[in-house]
Every structure is written in structure tokens, then in C-alpha cells.
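Whiteboard transcription, Tuesday session. T.W. wrote the C-alpha cells on the left side:
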């Protein structure tokens, strides 16, 4: 199964869009608290439309709780400006794609923690980053391309 992990997401519309993408491809969504909004907020629900019932969702109280449960799995940290791009990876069956908060990205201590490789999406140097929901869709659909929809 493909797992999409959002560390402390900040924008409800992005989280809703990502939930909709996860429902469409059968990926499990993990959200690591704290988050500054409720998942019942209109903005998150509207972006996810009526797909929340089809979404496999797991909430985690903090990063340490997530790592205690899943730290031994195949973790891939999606961050800007890494030398390994998301298309260079052959994703194993149980892959976890981890994305940081929209305004901060993933903490260096996590990237340097030895849990797995950091990967990136190529972009022009003058552009700081992509929208989080777009980044999730790009990398998740690379896994779909490699495995086929039912291999996710």
C-alpha cells in the first residue's frame, strides 16, 4: 500500500485535495499533528468533496508517535533541492511518502535521522517550491505509474 504522510499541514484546502487524491488511488493518508484547523472545516471538506468516506485516514499526535510506529518502514522524504529525484526511485510495495508543512518543509533533524532517502521534484532554481497538493499528486502518481493503480 502507498502511504502519504503530511507532517503538520497548515492549509485546509491542500489537505482536502490530498485526501481526494489518496481516495482516488487507494493510498492511506497519515496526518501528523499539530494542525491549525479541524478536518471538519468547510475548506478541507469542500476540497475533498464527498470522497472522505472513501479515504483511509490515520491521525498521529506527533512525529515521534509516527516514527515509533512506522520508522522501520520504507520512508521517502519529499523535499526541495535534493539530488535524488522522485522518478529515480523504484518504490517498494509499502512506501511512505512524507511531506512537510507548506511554509517550512521537513526539519533537517528528520532528513538527517537515517530513516530513509530524501527525494525531490525538479524545478527551476528561481522557484522555491510547488504547492503541497500538486507535489503529492506528482509523486503519488509516479508510484501509480510504476505499479498500476491496483498495485498501489
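and on the right, the sequence the group agreed on:
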Amino acid at each position: 500500500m502507498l502511504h502519504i504522510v503530511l507532517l503538520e499541514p497548515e492549509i485546509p484546502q491542500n489537505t482536502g485535495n490530498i485526501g481526494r487524491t489518496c481516495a482516488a488511488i487507494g493510498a492511506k493518508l497519515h496526518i501528523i499533528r499539530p494542525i491549525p484547523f479541524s478536518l471538519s472545516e468547510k475548506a478541507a471538506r469542500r476540497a475533498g468533496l464527498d470522497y472522505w468516506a472513501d479515504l483511509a485516514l490515520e491521525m498521529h499526535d506527533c512525529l515521534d508517535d509516527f516514527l515509533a510506529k512506522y520508522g522501520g518502514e520504507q520512508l521517502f522524504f519529499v523535499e526541495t533541492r535534493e539530488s535524488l529525484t522522485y522518478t529515480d526511485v523504484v518504490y517498494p510495495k509499502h512506501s511512505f511518502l512524507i511531506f512537510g508543512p507548506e511554509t517550512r518543509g521537513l526539519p533537517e533533524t528528520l532528513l538527517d535521522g537515517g530513516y530513509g532517502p530524501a527525494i525531490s521534484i525538479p524545478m527551476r532554481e528561481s522557484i522555491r517550491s510547488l504547492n503541497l497538493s500538486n507535489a503529492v499528486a506528482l509523486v503519488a502518481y509516479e508510484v501509480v505509474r510504476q505499479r498500476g493503480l491496483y498495485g498501489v
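Someone added at the bottom: The chain has five helices and six strands.
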